[in-house]
Amino acid sequence: MAGVSNLGVMCGCEPRWVAGGGGKGMGIFAAASIDRRVTLRILRSSKDEAYHVGRLFANSSRMKPLESHQRFSTRMALLGQKIVQHPDVAKSSGVLAYDLVQGSLVEWNSFMDKSVPDPPTAVLLHGILGGRKNWGSFARRLAQEFPTWQFLLVDLRCHGDSASIKKHGPHTVASAALDVLKLVAQLRVTPRVLVGHSFGGKVALSMVEQAAKPLARPVRVWVLDATPGKVRPGGDGEDHPGELISFLSSMPQQVSSKHEVVDALVREGFSTDVARWVVTNLRPVSQTGSSLPPGFSWIFDLKGIAEMYKSYEETILWETVENVPRGVHVNFLKAERSLHRWALEDLQRIHAAEELAADEGAGVEMHVLEDAGHWVHADNPDGLFRILSSSFQLLRPSM
């Protein structure tokens, strides 16, 4: 399903239907098991929390200073420990909701003096109708294997906890990328690796396009099961994301049960897996003072998401791929059983870019993930982990 993120099995709070029996991604808990004895720190924002350091990538003339903001407090959560309160810092009206998963050897946070270098950071981006929790289990596995790294998981605009943070349109790939660039500046981190699934893959490429100079060198970009050009018609089978967004938009904002939504989606022709994944975006709504039973409402902004998906279909980033800045390495990963539209022309163009980039001190590379459909980090997490691990090994800091 081009542009649609993976099933909810990557979340640390999977619904009960995922836990038992067979089906898409069922082996992930065994494959990506976490040693609970290892301490991982998670710095988590809420919809009202952010960091602000005054200027976004001050060495970039394309970015403007942030406006002043009021004060508020943030929280650092330690796995298995209580939440620790930190001093008040400035509040931004335009930040994204995020989790920052840190390896056990990371001793850093953005409250430290600016002279203290930030640890190597990877940014993980979800697809359309997904959320940061899609990457949760996978990020914790990476943090366990690479304890000197930290992993920034975000809810893109109109998605998850970021949906309640009002943003001006247009809602596009480019605007989503700029949001992430603003967030990493506010956190005072310099990404060394960008990983984006589907829509998130184009967001990662757009980040390179908009802010190539401020990015670290070297930086490795992973575009998972997406191409740089227009999305070609056909190839999504029964779960076309545009049709899914349209159908969800026709449903009431509030529903009485998740089963009701699953049944409606299946009757409409969507797969059971996708129907069950979609309802992970429903949250309980209390009926205070009402005789009506509790219901559920969507946590995303479907109107904004529809704009974002249209932008995903139309955005062309071939120029970025064919003129990769020196020190940037772009990796495309195609799922062996992908329903995404990988045309022969796209593959040939990527291979041509490989040769050109090598001559310019940059890099473009094509990978194929076996035994996986579009939901690569659910279908074959072990294979994906092995392929992505090369980036963290190559950029492993000296100890």
UniProtKB/TrEMBL annotation:
Which SUPFAM superfamilies does the UniProt entry name for this protein? alpha/beta-Hydrolases (SSF53474)
Domain AB hydrolase-1 spans what residues? 123-385
Record's Pfam families? Abhydrolase_6
Entry keywords, A to Z? Hydrolase
Q: What GO molecular function terms would the record report?
A: hydrolase activity
Translocase as a keyword of this entry, yes or no, is no
InterPro entries from the UniProt entry: AB_hydrolase_1 (IPR000073), AB_hydrolase_fold (IPR029058), Serine_prot/Carboxylest_S33 (IPR051601)
Q: Does the keyword Hydrolase apply?
A: yes
**What family name appears in the similarity comment?**
Belongs to the peptidase S33 family.
Name listed for the protein in its UniProt record: Protein ABHD11
Gene assigned in the entry: LOC103719496
